[in-house]
User: What shape does this take?
Amino acid sequence: MKLAVVVQRYGADVNGGAELHARYIAERLSRHASVEVVTTCARDYVTWKNELPAGVETVNGVTVRRFPVRRERNPDDFGRRSQRVFERTHSVADELGWLESEGPSSPALVDYVEKTAKDVDFVILFSYRYYHSWHLARRVPEKAVLVPTAERDATIGLSIFGPVFRAVRALMYNSPEERAMIQAASGNASVPGVVVGVGSDVPERPDPERFRRKFKMRRPFAIYIGRIDENKGCGELFSHFQRYAHAFPRGMDLVLVGSAIMSVPKHPRIHHLGFLDDRDKFDALAASDLLIMPSYFESLSMVALEAWGLGRPVLANGRCDVLKGQCIRSNAGLYYENYEEFVEALYSLESNGPLNARLGRNGKEFFKRHYAWPVIEQKYLDMFAQLKKDLPPEGASYKGERGYTGERVASGFRRKAVEPLPGFFARRKRNLPPSEDILATIPSGAVVDLPYRVGRQSA
Amino acid sequence: MSDFSVRSDNVDVEQIMRQIRARIREKRGVDYTEEEIRELANVKLEKFIDPKGVRSNLLEEYRRVSTPEPAAPNYAFGEDTLYETHRAPIRWLRSLLRPFLKLLFNPNPLIQALHIQSELNQKAAERNARREQLDALHYEVIHNLVVELTRTGIEVNSLKMRLESMASRLDFDERRARALEGVVQYRPGAVPPLQPPTGHDQSRRHDGRRDQGPRDQGQRGPRPPQGPSPQGPGIQGPRDQGPGGNALDNEGNERRARRRRRRGRRRPGEERGGELRPAFAGGESNASFGDQGTAQSSVPANDQTQDRPSTLDTSASAEATADRRPSMADSSEAPAQPTPSAGEPPTE
Assistant: This one.
């Protein structure tokens, strides 16, 4: 089996959520199939500046083919267009202009994948919102397997993405909340999809004492791992924790791991350790009492899964549907929506040893059952087998026609029908509602009634 | 904070969160439910504040600020605004001639400048709107502060009254207890119980009957001639004697004589000593309390009664009886053992 993985950035040192997800999946699937990663030369997700050389290289045993980005992102232009499509009545042309402005626009990449699509079994597209996913989902829909990594933001309300979600062969969701949101936004319930997520190489025997010795951590602590950013809810976390520290002078400390793009308050019980390698990170997790996830928007929290993999409970922001749903389904974490709940939940996890241990065990079981690598790999392989078995009928294909965007589509392989774009004038008619209004109509909340919920027993 | 009871296999995150929220509700208090808090936040300031009580023009200021102002007009300026028209042919013509126009001059800086200006206008309008919202928030905050302050003030007053009431009751109960103890009749030869300190100065109040002990004796004058045997147990008084107390009682005459000698020595230097008796006999209630005893003793009993009214009138007679008990202990005329005659029944 031959697979192409297409993602906006790729590299051993690229640590974005979707990019890391793509790398893990590519490396794992390379054990079962021939995998080629197709990506851009960009390293910075803000500017898409071409920093890496174009061409072919090997990263951790996987072939990576890079294509240059045609032009860097202009933040002003992107901001203006975002404002238009998110907040005002707009047209399809506005949305297409927004997509082009967002980038990373690399027509060479799209052309290459389209040309070689007949030689691969499936094209795995990461992150629905970027240029490459939209174009390739329209050009090679029959081969396209989309990993949307969608968060609950206004992008999901743009009209140009509905046909994409309905056109691809299958979707590999990160969470039931993500699936519910996309299905509500696009009505693609008939498209095959499975909640997969991503695994992690959690070490069997981490060494928490080594971490405590190395960083001189003597007191019990809660840990936050990730980018220290206002958008990740760190501001609220700092505020809550400082109040908690004032109320509980002998309570636990807070350890921050990750690069900071906001100021970390100087507090004797807040320790910022900066970016750590995997060994230190896992040792730190094992040494901690719990992980705090203050983010409002997550499609899947890998670090939460890693904490559960190490048997540590999670205290999550309850306003993030995905995190709240994961806590409830796993029975392995508590959540908060305000300071009172934060302090009560944190104190409960800190002071109640049996509760902490039981939640940790539930987390370990949840991780092993749903996010261990063999489970993840098997879900992908099962989906590929099902898609191969259920090929679309010949009559549904059409060859050599002009497609949605007016560009030539590849011929020579069967093609699933894609809803065409509106005509020239209709495309420019500003009659689409702001996508924020669309987002507001999409139901929210954690998905809790699932058969694979862990430890659902009465307390 | 209470803990959750977690058995090995029983844990349900949703239930734990329900318990946490219930606990938070309990902490907030029964008089403030979510609905009430919301209602409080929505109630206008005027309903709670008495304008006469507010000395500044706060209310007028808030009323003035809260009047909404019409938003300033703005325009949206995009790339195509210059060429837009509702007439399709003209729009087409303009788009056709746009390259020629660009040959003559470069409209892009103009477009960008106007677009930036439009954005600045919008941001300024948003900032104004936010400021207005903040003003409204300040209004609410002050309103809530006033409400909370009023509530706290009422609670403080209530607590003060309760404290005073409880102090009065405690005072009355103590006096009553002393009065009842005073009417207990002891059998001849029995050891009278120690009385609570009601002495005339600070040291006596704390030492009780220890004024008979060697320390006081040593301080106040030469020790009277003692018997050949060590005086320790006998001199330390009945409190420290333990089983030896009866032996002293058997020597009651010696002790009384010792007291008489001591009082005789003290009397010339302590002019007030003799005047204490009438004050106690007069039934002054406050004379038995604390450090005031000495000061009051210089004033005639009748004057004290006039100047210091009793807090509780009903306890006056009981106090009078209660105050006699320590005075008997110090009096040279009083016997060491209380007699039934001392127990004039107090009237309550």
Q: What stands out?
A: The first helix of chain A runs from residue 17 to 29. Residues 36 and 299 of chain A are 25 Å apart (CA to CA).
